[in-house]
Structures are given as C-alpha cells and as structure tokens.
Amino acid sequence: SLGLVALSVMAPIESFSLSVVIGLSSAAGVLIGNELGAKNYDSTYLKAKSVMIFNMLVSVVLALILYGFQVQVLGLFPVLTGDAQELAKKFIIVLCLGIVLRSIPMMAITGILRAGGDVKFCLYQDLIAQWLITIPIAALAAIYLDFQPEWIFLIFLLGEFLKCFSSVLRIKSKQWIKQIIN
Asked: What is the longest distance spanned by two Cα atoms in the chain?
C-alpha cells in the first residue's frame, strides 16, 4: 500500500539521522562511566546535564537540516511518485519531530542511566512505554479507528514522549548515580 511504500523510504532516512544521536549517546556513556569509576559523583551529574543539552542542540540542528533538504533527500528515492511522495513529505515532518523527541530518552537511557547502573529502570521504562502503551494505542488507531498512516507514524512517538519525562525526572533524582566499584 501507499503507507508501506512511504514508510519503507523513511527507514533508511531515520536510521541515518539517528546514527548521530546514537553515537553521541554511546560517547556519553563512556564519559559518565569514567566519572563514576573515578568516584567523581558531583561532576557526574554536571556532565550528564551537559551531554543532554549538547545532544538536544545537535538533534534540533539535524532535524532542521533534514527538513530543509527534504526535497533532495526524497529525490534519492525515484520509487516515490505522486501520492507516495506527498505522504513521504508528511512522514519527514513527523521524522524531524521524532529525531528531537527520540534524542532525549536515547541520551538519557543509553548514555546516562545505563552507564550509571540503572538498568532495571531503563528496562521497565522501555517495556511499559512500548508494549503497554504505544503498540496497543497504535494498533487500536490503525485497525479499529482507521487513522491515516501519518497519524499512526506520529502515535509511535508517544512512547518516546513518555520516556522523555520519566528519564529526565530519573536523572534529576540522582538515584542512578551508583558506585560502580566498592
């Protein structure tokens, strides 16, 4: 169908765009782990805040670049014609929002909380946000409510939105700062 064609084009664009954020999150995990290993607990929290802010700025710039060059990016996929091209343009807007939205929990979970040893919180947060909230709502919207494809694509960001709040609150609580080596 039309939605599948447009969505299949979004997958490599999304992967390429998010690779920058994933790289930053992995680098932050090393920085946070080093601080905790050195028992620099006060500077660990300050570094966590700094990498979150830097990550947000990078993701906003990345989303703006993608939005600004959407015609050129979509031009790389000649399979998109007519209605599929229009739907892909709508998906690009959702994708730009998704890049910024996903960058927050990605940095928080992968770069900070897991490095701080807060693995259980990350696991439960992912399970609840994805399997108990996002997927059932998206399935309901697609199967029973007959939502348009771009709205279904947007609904899949709901879990990321929820993880933004819970992750940021967890970081602010400082409960994730754990002693790695006794």
From this structure: 62
